[in-house]
Amino acid sequence: MSETIAIVDYNMGNLASVQNAFAKLGQKTIIERDPNKFKDYDKLVLPGVGAFGDAMEHLRDRNMIDALTSYAKSGNYMFGICLGMQLLFDSSEEFGNHDGLGLIKGKVTAFDATNFSEALKIPHTGWNRVFTEQHPLFENLDENHYLYFVHSYHVNCTNKADIIAQTNYGYEFTSCVSHNNIMGIQPHPEKSHKNGLKILENFIGL
Length: 206
Fold this sequence. Notes:
The chain is of the alpha/beta class.
């Protein structure tokens, strides 16, 4: 039986574009809003756009936090995209201090633009090169691959071993993480053309 993949709907995600990207790869996905059904899927995708605190409130209101935590403990793969990646961490300082899901140790902080040149604007928007470690998510990417970013905050990992990709924007920041069965990516693979689709294809194949 083929694997089933759910895209978590907590009213904060770019659901259609993520689902369309998977469809281009021939992978059917279900947009799922019932946390009681998360356990029925082989993989979960946690997308997201917007503010961290609002996202956690939406997850809380929909009784999804415990369900996501339980899913993470099941050993099945979970993949956070953009804000969805940030939610995997312990906390964020975006518009105050907010607790996250705590699935990966670390904190989400604002870009420190103190020494940025005038050419570097916040939010970090557009194409940027991603320097990757060896990891199944990155198999068969172009050697010099660029992905599409839109964000003002980035993650700071407590455990450096969780970092599998970095990007330079004024300074190096973590752009992709992996901790056991939990993975996250700051850029938008669904907006990153061939290389982004390849990352999603590699996720399907895990």
